Amino acid sequence: MIDSTEKLGAHEVAAFLRRHPEFLRQFPDLAVSLVVPRDAGPAASLASYQLEVLRDKNRELNRRLQELFGNAQVNERLAVRTHQLTLALLKQNSAADTLRAMAAALAEDFQGDLVRIVSFRPVVGLDDADWLQVIDQGDKHVDPFRDCLADGEPLCGRLQPDKHALLYGARADEVQSSALLPMPGQGLIAVGSLDPNRFYPGMGTLFLRMMAESLATALRRFDG
Predict the structure, then answer these.
(1) What 8-state DSSP symbol labels residue 139?
(2) Chain-centroid distance, C-alpha 112
(3) For strand 187-193 and strand 155-157, is the pairing parallel, antiparallel, or unpaired?
(4) pLDDT tens digits for 164-198?
(5) Which DSSP symbol is given to 224?
(6) Which of 44, 59, 169, 203 sits 20 to 30 Å CA-CA off 17?
(7) Residues paired with 158 in a beta bridge
(8) Whole-number Å distance between alpha carbons of 101 and 33
């Protein structure tokens, strides 16, 4: 038997809900957890509301699942391309061929609009490569990149004008976003895009770092 205190509490709750018919909109989790007598005519509207909330949640879960699935597919393709790039770099027989393979892969397989490589050491056989600059590591033009080289982490987004000027020269104004891959002690790799949203701060840089490490490792075979 229900005592008077519980009856009073139930009446108060019912009265409150009558005065605030929008209450359950503020607390949809409560609406979902309520047990509704579906054979009681007017109560069927609450049951419909519960069902709609569950459908909304289901749609959101499906959306997130599709997003995760899409990201997984993108990451899988990037993993395959990065692996293929690493193998291609290790198959080359000279530093010049290694850099050529890297520049070609970034332009073709990774759709870079402008690919630029800065080497701190001379490279025999690449005098005519417009995508390569050979600069002494102590040159003052390298100063804007000191922090990046010390950190060793790729940078993504709109680079500062002094970095743009060194990397892209006369075409600096065309580049709207960049991925900058440092190779401490060896040089820099820049992938420029005409799309301002292609590379952005906060994007994942795991594969970029792996590509830079692959090139650095491949080039060390020709040291000395």
Answers:
(1) -
(2) 16
(3) unpaired
(4) 999 999 999 999 999 999 999 999 999 999 999 99
(5) -
(6) 59
(7) none
(8) 60
Half-sphere exposure of 136 (CA within 13 A, CB side): 3
The first and second tokens of residue 175, run together, are 């580049």
Look at the alpha carbons of 159, 98, 171, 108 in this order and tell me if their dihedral is positive or negative.
negative
This prediction's pTM:
0.70
Structure tokens at 130: 């417009």
d(CA 16, CA 36): 18
Which run of H or E residues covers position 116?
Answer: strand 114-119
Ordered by start, the domain boundaries in the chain are 94-220
Close Cβ partners of 69 (under 8 Å, ≥ 6 residues apart): none
CA distance 187 to 152: 11
Measured in degrees and rounded to the nearest 5, phi and psi for residue 116 equal -135, 135
Using N-to-C axis directions, what is the helix angle for 44-90 and 95-108, rounded to 10°? 150
Could you tell me which residues are beta bridge partners of residue 177? 193
Query: Can you state the percent helix, strand and coil of the chain, rounding each to 5?
Result: 60, 10, 30
- pLDDT, tens only, 101-147: 999 999 998 889 999 999 999 999 998 899 999 999 999 999 999 99
Tokens 């987004």 belong to which residue? 157
Rounded to whole angstroms, the Cα distance separating 203 from 189 reads 17
